[in-house]
Amino acid sequence: xxxxxxxxxxxxxxxxxxxxxxxxxxxxxxxxxxxxxxxxxxxxxxxxxxxxxxxxxxxxxxxxxxxxxxxxxxxxxxxxxxxxxxxxxxxxxxxxx
Length: 97
Description:
The chain is mainly alpha-helical. It is built from five helices and no strands. Helix 1 (2-11) packs across helix 2. It is flat.
């Protein structure tokens, strides 16, 4: 259970009590990371489906992405912005890093 709590505490905004954060718990947390993604994806899919019933597909997609951004503290959006900065800068590879 320590690894599962560590995974949810690290990868989401869901409030969980993390008692251990050593190497063993971190390894178990990485094994549980897909489960965290499944749960967060379920929340996003539910929000998208609810919005889609009333407002259409485009707004449903925006709602699903917004729910994921909120539940992960924008973790993946920050990584996406870093990739865009590196690839879109037009600088040589060494300078882009």
